[in-house]
Every structure is written in structure tokens, then in C-alpha cells.
Amino acid sequence: MAKHTLSTLEAFLIFLLVMMTAVTVALLSLLFITSGTIENHKDSGVPVTQSPPTTPGSTATQGSTLTHGSTATQGPPVTTTPEPPLFQNFSGYHIGVGRADCTGQVADISLMGYSKTGQNARGILTRLYSRAFIMAEPDGSNRVAFVSIDIGMVSQRLRLEVLNRLQSKYGSLYRQDNVILSGTHTHSGPGGYFQYTVFVIASEGFSNRTFEYMVTGIVKSIEMAHKNMKPGKIFINKGNVEGVQINRSPSSYLWNPPSERARYSSNTDKEMIILKMVDLNGVDLGLISWFAIHPVSMNNTNHLVNSDNMGYASYLFEQEKNKGYLPGQGPYVAAFASSNLGDVSPNILGPRCVNTGDSCDNANSSCPIGGSSMCIAMGPGHDMFNSTQIIGGIIYQRAKELYASASQELTGPLAAAHQWVNMSNVTVWLNSTHTAQTCKPALGYSFAAGTIDGFGSLNFTQGTTVGDPFWDTLRDQLLGKPSEEIKRCHKPKPILLHTGELTKPHPWHPDIVDVQMITVGSLAIIAIPGEFTTMSGRRLREAVQAEFATYGMQNMTAVISGLCNVYTHYITTFEEYQRYEAASTIYGPHTLSAYIQLFRALAKAIATDTVANLSRGPEPPYFKQLIASLIPNVVDRAPLGRNFGDVLQPAKPTYRVGEVAEVIFVGANPKNSAENQTHQTFLTVEKYEATSATWRIVHNDASWETRFYWHKGLLGHSNATIQWHIPGTAQPGIYRMKYFGHHRKQDFLKPAVILPFESTSSAFEVVTS
């Protein structure tokens, strides 16, 4: 390896990094309260070992578990809500759908996904929603719930708290085994809802404000689905979606065996699977779609909270079905859920060097001048908003076609199986005589390089196969040396952060992981706790389907549901273990084999009706006391002689269709609205109806056509800008915009209070030409 001479700038940056790291570690060590941990993983040191298969397709079930609603938290006394009466004499399922807001903070919080310093929320493009679907057998004996949530990923703490509240209200009706929580993986949602140190650092602290908002929204969506249950039918359909994906690690994909790659026409999974839900009269109830794509059309320069391309597809589908309703309202619910998206990008123009225009689609995703920071993949639009619309629009249109032609009805029993597994200590049977082991969590060098969808902030490179003496020394001094055991276990990945050996102030990564599967007739929904690559997903689906077939359940369809229950980064194949996705495969090179073994055990238990015999497994911890956000709460202040909501820049008298109407107000911090939810939107666009002399709301802040920007000033001063990008469908007429906010007030020696306010712009006219 060539010696690298540090420039003055590099030396300064390194010194600055060391100082920042030291301060961060010191602050975290001081502010975290380790005594607040509920340690429920006393069995976590026991290896999860399975006996070798004795016959083709068979898998031992030791270490698998079935849960019956217990979580790691001590809940209040159970107050069971009476079960609504179920009509039993019909063919199909009881179906309930529900949708609820789970946006959380839209300011003073890091956006979760790119881990880019300074990418804090500064407003909102679209609201984030939790979409719940409950299915029960006609006699009500078995039920399952699938919840798709517009967030980056589901955290373990979030799931445990949701289940605890469900248990408090419904008893054992909704449990660890029959409720799946899945994140869409938008990279434009707020962070701050995690308990493991790596994610707490990435979120710049824990935000109880956002955590509570999300938990409340998720639970509310399930409650709505529970109340709305009615007899109905479910139809399944499949079809390819073209023109929206590329594989962002094609060189890694090529390391998979040629014979395996030859079975597939593409290095991404193009198939979309949809469920169409209707009542017995054929009235539409809802849609669940699974498709493998990263919601990163909105890039890491974005500061507006939004649900990205998959959320835009949901927005279009729900607007189509809920005519006359504002976005986020109406009875119909459409979820576009994540799948094995690990190496799949929507930025279909591919990676190019932004300084030269040349392709950088190479093994290191690096440019000759500028390195990896210059290698960026671009979407098909003229900006990230337009790219989101194009990609999301194509996905929506294909789902609409599959929905219209869906005719294969799902029938048969419902089943659910779940396990808690110590993924840092699973013995994997490679064949009847040889085993391998998963590892304590660790992140490799290529993790710090980022991807072509969002490069890292330091000059690391993808595909790095050896460590760097400088960074190794810096890590060793700050965090201690990784053990020889963990280095050996993760080979050939060079370790940058040995997170599985870092426990202060709390563990840096989870050991205990949920492994879960539910079946709806001939459909198996595999809930994966991370991001499987394309080939990893194919192998898992194939193994699960084969296991079902071995035990008499032929022609099962297996769908992978991504980012479920707890986040554990990426899962690559053994052969792909080299670039960013591999460096982020935290349990080592045999992670995929371990998951295949574990999910086969669940499939066998369901197929042989032996789920009740599965062992319980070690419960995960729940950390009660966590560091608060490093961004303090500040009292809001209006300029002298002004009030909150005063108009600083009025609307123009007239706008044409296609133009942008804009008004600037005296603002207050939008995060206040996540505490005091007096208003359900930051803005409305209203049209004057002359016949009734009233103003009719035509858009809110969940509408794609509106944008709410917050501009933070000094000493509690701020402005709010509301934009309406007037669509071609807008009717000519008189309009106005309203601003809804909350300001924090604190009198001397009194606690702070959050007070609502609202303001209205002057009226303006929209004309067509």
C-alpha cells in the first residue's frame, strides 16, 4: 500500500475529527444512564445452534421461538377492548385497514438514512403515515397484522413500545408473532427513535417527542384497522416493473456464481407483488404492494420531511381511490412496502463523476479526480423532486394495472411464527459435517465510503480490503482495539468499528434480533430485520418455498418484507462480501446462511403445525433512559412590533397555472407542533366558493403540490415560507394560504408552554393563461 502524505488541510480535518469524536464519546458517556436498562437477554450468551439437516429440506427447530405478546417492557394492567362480533358464515377473511399520521418532528432533528452531518429537517414536503392491515379467519380464531410505515426503518425500541401498548389495550390479540412492522426506508424521515448507540449518534440523540408521535400513530393505525374489520376477499397478482431500478453494486453482484446469475435476466428484482383487498360486495378496501427499490430519489441535499418515491406511489393510489378527500384522509389505504432493496437504486442514469461527466461505475465507485465524493448517481428528472415523481409514478401505474387485473384469490388458514435470536452467535450448518459461525457486530471500512446514492463525508473508498494504519490507530486510541476473534470472524472484511465489543454507554448494535414469518393462505411474508441484496433475497425466498414444499405446502409464494422490527443494516451473499453493503453486513460473511437456516425452521414449523412447540429465545433489552437531542429547546421570539404569523412577504395578486405562489410569515419552531397537536397541518391552500361565500380547503401539507420551509434565525427568531406549486389541474379562481403553527413561551420562573397560532395570506387569483 502506497504511503499517503497528509496535506495541511487533511491534517487539520483529521485533528478536527479526533476532537469531535472525543467530545461526542465524552458527552454520550456522561449523558447516557446505563442503570436505566432492562436486561431481558440473560440467555444471549448461549449459542443459537441447530443440528445439521438429516434429509433434504429438513431443518432442526432448536432456537426458534413463538411469542405470545410479551415484550421487554413492564406494561400497565391489561384492559382488554371487547372484540367486535365477527360474522363467520362466508368464504374469505375479515379485513381491516387503517392509516394514521406518524410524521414526528419536521425541524431540529436529523433525517435518518444518509447519516450526513448537517442534514437536519427544515420543513415538510409530505406527511408520513403508518398504514395497517389486519386479516382474520372467518371464525376469528387466527389473525395477522401487517403495518407499513413511512420511516427509514423500524427500531427495536419502537416495536417493543408499540406491542406493549397493544397488549395493554387488546391483551394477547396482537402479539410479537402476528404483528409485522415494516419501514418503507425513506431517507427523508426524522431519526431519533433508536436505542442502540450507533443509531443514537447518527440521529444526534434520542427524541422522545418524535418517538411518542410515531408510536401513537402506529398504534392508532392498528386501532383503526381493528375497528374497521369486515368480511372480504384478498386477491394476489404479480408483474414486472421496468425502467425504475439499477443495481448500485454491480461488481459485487458479479461475484455470485455464474450458474446462479444465469437463471435471472436482471441484476435487480423487477417483480412487484400486490394484494388487492375488497369487501364481499367488491368495494375496494386497500392495497399492499412489495417492490425492491431504495427510496432515495430525494438525495442527501434535501431538508424537507417526505416519504420519497414509494410514498409518492401511495399518495397517487390513495388520491385515486379517495376522490374528494384531502391527502391522508379517506377510507382506502394503499401501502407500498419495501423488499430486498439492499443494492437497488432508483437513480437510473447511473453513477457519474459530477466534475467531468464520465462514468464511475467501477468496483470502487471512485473518480480519478475527487475520489468517491465525486461519484454520484442521478435520477431521471431535472431535479430530485421531479425524479421522485417519475419513479413513484411508474411504480404507481404498474400497481394500478396489477390491481385492476388481480383475479387469483388467496384462501386458506392464517399462521404466524416468530423468534428472538442472538445473531452474534448462530452456528450455521454449511453441510452435514461442516459449520460456520456468525460474528459479533462490526462495520467495515467500506461502510464509511457510503454509496453512489449518498457518499460518505470522509475520503473512504468502496471495495477496501485492508485497513488503514492511521484510522486503525485513531480507533484504537478512542475506542480500544478490536479483538483477534472479531477480526478473524469478519474476514475478509477489514473492521473499522468493532461495535459488538462496544457497550458503553449502551451497546452499539443489537445482538437479539426478531426473525418472523406470517402466512396468508399460499402467501408467506418474510419479515427481515434489515436490507437484503437482490441475490440474498432470491436465495431466501427460494429456500423458504422449498421448505414449505418439502412438508406438503406446494406452490407457496414467498415475499420479502424489508426493514422489519429491528434494524441490522445489510445482508449480502457470501460471495458479495466486499463493498458498502458487505461492510454493513454486521454479523459477518455467514449472515445470510444463518437467516436462511432460521427462516426455514419457521417455514417447517408452520407447514407441520408445530409452531406451538418452538422455544422462546432470548428477549431483547429495552433501554428506558436515553440521551436527549443535542439540539436544545429555545423560546420562540417574534421581531419587535410583530406577532407570530404576521405576513413578511405577501402573495402576488395573480399567478398563472404552473407558477409558484409563495408567502413568508413570522414563524416559530415547527418541532413544537409535534408536542401540541392542536393543528393537524402546517398549511392549507383554500379556494373561495362564491356560491356559498365560503373557503374550501384544496391542499394541506400532505399534498405533493405544497412545500413548507422553516428558516431558523438567531435567539429564537425564524421565518416560515409556504409554497404552492400550482398544478395544471388547478381551477381558475380566488385562493389564499393559511399558516398553522405553535410557539414556545416561557415566563420567568415558570415552565414553558406551547401555544397555537394561525395566520392567513391575502387573497390572490389563479388564471390559466
TrEMBL record:
UniProt family annotation: Belongs to the neutral ceramidase family.
Keywords, ordered alphabetically: Hydrolase, Lipid metabolism, Membrane, Sphingolipid metabolism, Transmembrane, Transmembrane helix
Entry annotated with the keyword Lipid metabolism: yes
The Neutral/alkaline non-lysosomal ceramidase C-terminal domain, residue ranges: 599-766
Catalyzed reactions: an N-acylsphing-4-enine + H2O = sphing-4-enine + a fatty acid
Enzyme class: hydrolase
Biased composition, class Polar residues, residue ranges: 47-81
Region (Disordered): 42-83
Record-annotated membrane-spanning stretches: 12-33
Name of the protein described by the UniProt record: Neutral ceramidase
Gene3D superfamilies tied to this protein: Neutral/alkaline non-lysosomal ceramidase, C-terminal domain (2.60.40.2300)
Domain Neutral/alkaline non-lysosomal ceramidase N-terminal residues, every copy: 93-597
EC number assigned by the record: 3.5.1.23
Coiled-coil annotated spans: none
